[in-house]
Amino acid sequence: MDNIISIIEKAYSDEILKASISSPFKKSNVYFKINISAIEIKGERALQFSRYFENKVTHVNTFSKDEAMEEIKLILSEGYKQWDIYTQKEGFKLIMNKKYNFKRLPLDLKGKSYEVQSHNKEKNYIMQEGRPLPMLIELGIMNKEGYILKDKQKKFRQLNKFLEIIKDTADKIPEGAEILDFGCGKSYLTFALYYYLNVVCEKNVKITGLDLKKDVIEFCNGLAQKCGYSGLKFIWGDIMDYESPKKAHMLITLHACDTATDYALAYGVKSGIEVILSVPCCQHELFNQVSNESLNVVLKHGILKERFSAILTDGLRGALLEAMGYKVNIMEFIESAHTPKNIMIKAVKTKGIKKEEKLSEYLSAAEQFQVKPKLFELLEEYL
Q1: How far apart are the first and last CA of the chain?
Q2: Helix axes 260-270, 302-323, angle to 10 degrees
Q3: Residues near 232 by Cβ (< 8 Å), separated by ≥ 6?
Q4: Residue 285, exposed/middle/buried by CB under 10 A (0-12, 13-18, 19+)?
């Protein structure tokens, strides 16, 4: 038994691509065959164990060596005489003899090629791989042939997820709209947004990116010019001091740290901006304020208090935006496996919101946890 486990552990290290386990020697064994396949789920490699019995099949996915070896040991205990295993390096067969020992024999691959199969649902992405886009090539996401670089697959999915969210609110963005991006950074999403609204939707929008890093602003302006994006410009400045020469229709603020998010949201509300998309970051403000005796079992632990404070911060931000007449949806922006900063606040100005009722909900929650967030301070005179 130890010998075959060591052989399979070695095969796991060589990356098992496919295996077929057959010929059960126990009559009581309900599975007549077990297959192992290397698959990809949300960008993560896994081994899928498929057990066949009668006209049915069951599946178990494992994401670590320990999980996989537990399944292997279970199969060994069930008893099968033949294992055909293919790895990245070789193919071999394990045959059980009359003494219940396994003999290892090479397998002729005969031109067979096994690949890791993707088990993600096929996406009809707005930006398609295989279609070269100058901005993605210059940003180092895509090569000149239009294929996504291996280490940029997650970023490519993030950009498309963002555009799917924009697609849902595109009808709120009129032709020729002014859009602001506060804390734009290197502007992956800003360029993707400009491409979608101007090239795909033909809305002829103007986008202004704002950031405090002068070298980033210089890079982004150069790239916008290189791509021929005449309606896209980047300026150096602080969210708290910015005044737009024209009324904006959409505000984007991604990963603005702590209360910088509040200043951006307050700007959007005061300016009457129709659509606000915000991905908050580093919500530290309420950590030293929050208090609730009934939740002391949570709040007495620093790490739990930090996480709870972040959730409370974004919940109260959403409630305040509702009190200002916005329909709010707080959603997962990108899978948490990629980044813990994965919450997006989507706020769309909507008629018929019961503002007084929403304000009452906010005030009740703020009193319960004994907090006064910066966003309330910035909007108090408008409530």
Answers
A1: 72
A2: 10
A3: 190, 191, 194, 206, 207, 209, 224
A4: buried
Beta strand segments in the chain, E: 16-24, 33-41, 44-53, 56-62, 80-87, 91-96, 102-106, 117-118, 178-182, 206-211, 232-236, 250-257, 275-281, 326-332, 343-349
Count CB neighbours of 3 within 10 A.
11
Tell me how far apart the alpha carbons of residues 118 and 50 are, in angstroms, rounded to a whole number.
16
Residue 194: which residues within 8 A CB-CB, separation 6 or more? 205, 207, 224, 229, 231, 232
For the chain, helix (H) and strand (E) counts, in that order, are 11, 15
Per DSSP, the residues of 251-285 read EEEEEEETTHHHHHHHHHHHTT-SEEEEEEE---G
Find residue 75's DSSP bridge partners.
Answer: none
Q: Per-residue pLDDT for the chain (383 aa), expressed as one digit of tens each?
A: 557 788 888 888 878 888 999 888 766 666 788 999 988 877 788 899 998 876 678 888 898 888 899 998 888 888 888 999 988 888 888 888 877 788 888 886 554 555 555 555 445 678 887 788 889 999 999 988 888 888 888 888 889 988 988 988 888 899 999 999 998 888 899 999 999 999 999 999 999 999 999 999 999 999 999 999 999 999 998 888 888 888 899 999 988 888 989 999 999 999 999 999 999 988 899 999 999 999 999 999 999 999 999 999 999 999 999 999 999 999 887 654 444 467 899 999 999 999 999 999 999 999 999 999 999 999 999 98
In a 13 Å sphere around the CA of 309, the CA atoms on its Cβ side amount to 24
148: DSSP letter? B
